[in-house]
Amino acid sequence: MTLGRALTSLEILRTICQFSDSSDDLKLLYVSRAFFAATIPFIWNNLRGVENLLELIPGVACGSTDEEPEVLNITPSPSSTQIIMWTQLFVSPTLVEISVVPLTPHQQGFLSCLEASALAKHINAVCPNLRFLSLFPDKEEAVEYRNRPCDAQALLYEFWNSSFPRQLESMESLTELCTTTAVLMPIGPARFIRLPDLKNLAIYPTPFTFALEKIAPESPFPALTKFSLNWAPHTLPVDVWRLPIFTNVTSVTLSFVTQPRDGIDGWSSSLVSIICDKSPRLIALYIDFDFEKKYDSVDLSSRPVIKPMQQVPLQTLELVSAHIEESSETGRLIPAIWSYLTVLKLPDNATNIEELALFSELPVLEHLVVELSLSTPPSEQTPVSSEGRNSSFNTLQSSSKVDISGDFYEIAQRLLDMWPKIRHVLWTDSAKTKPKVASQSSSKALAIGLNRTINMLRELSETKLRLSQAYGPDALKMFQ
After folding, report:
1. What is the pTM for the complete model shown?
2. pLDDT higher than 60, residue 98
3. Domain locations in the chain as residue ranges
């Protein structure tokens, strides 16, 4: 191919990479698609660290072993043509993961069912060992086809709409799938998609109305253990949980972009009830009641909201945009309802040192996240019983920077009275940052002082116990 032909081709690409050094700038402005496609096999087969080269291309990220590419990640683009082009160019037989990142809620999708079906067919033909696929056929134009009279275009749309699930069904090695509610719909008069080895399914809503006229007689995903429903309207779970796919599910993740105008207690209790009823093996549950932070925090103090959780062996629970009143009836029932919990996250639950006593009654809890405020406990307070104290708890974490004030000794002693094995207090700047030891906070001196006091008092208590066991109670007189 000559340079002149490359520069005048109708398939000329936009700028695919740009980099500079101290001497001059080098810009590769135009490359013909045909030429670039021809070089891809050479890049995969002959260049080590190929993911570093591909990171120069906007919207494309890859990962590989020393010898073979394994991961392809395509970020959202306003052009579905670019998404399809980059995916087709970079797919390789050794890929085990292909991800097209979803857009944010309420945005128009970038792939129609037609385009997604064609792309899935290409991926299926090239990648025999694919284990993870993220692809979203939710472009608005597809709705227009469905609303039109029954003509050739409408029939073509219906054909491809069912073809996308059929292509997924042919991916025999697939264990993780991230897509839209289209995958849950029938693909024929009496046909449903079946993925026998699928373990993790993440679903996003589409602009189409999700209406189940028929339901599969048995689970189309018999190996499914993890299920996510993301950015959903509050009405969607009622239909989705009619499907026979939740019996073996052990982990459920939900996030909502709407809430009912009235009856929030009834809706939230019904939601929790249906989840626990359909998934008797549930051990991990995450619910964000307000993904876009448009509503008030949901009050979980009503007994029917969390009571159904008692019937499942929950070990990890995170409830975002929700809170519990300590003095409520539910608060008093928490130790029995959450008796299996090892991790509890209530990032929007404002909690002071007195209110922590509620959570100290959870028998096997190891990690607690709340919106934390620590100050000197009152002199007149209910003593913590030494019998049956939780000896597994080690981490108290705040969902924001810890508000610390007062006597560190009294604060640390109170925390150790509740949790004898507590190690430290952590804080998190935001949901997007990793938790840090409190000694790294802006109030560094305060945080260092608190955690050092906790460690000193814990070690002193452990030393006293060892001396008492070895030499009897008289050995403790030296500490008086």
Report:
1. 0.79
2. yes
3. 1-46, 48-224
pLDDT the model gives residue 463: 75
pLDDT score of 215: 76
Residue with the bigger pLDDT between 434 and 431: it is 434
187 CB-near residues (< 8 Å, 6+ apart): 162, 165, 166, 169, 193
Q: What is the pLDDT of residue 144?
A: 44
Reported as a single tens digit per residue, the pLDDT across 206-238 is 766 777 767 777 888 999 999 999 999 999 998
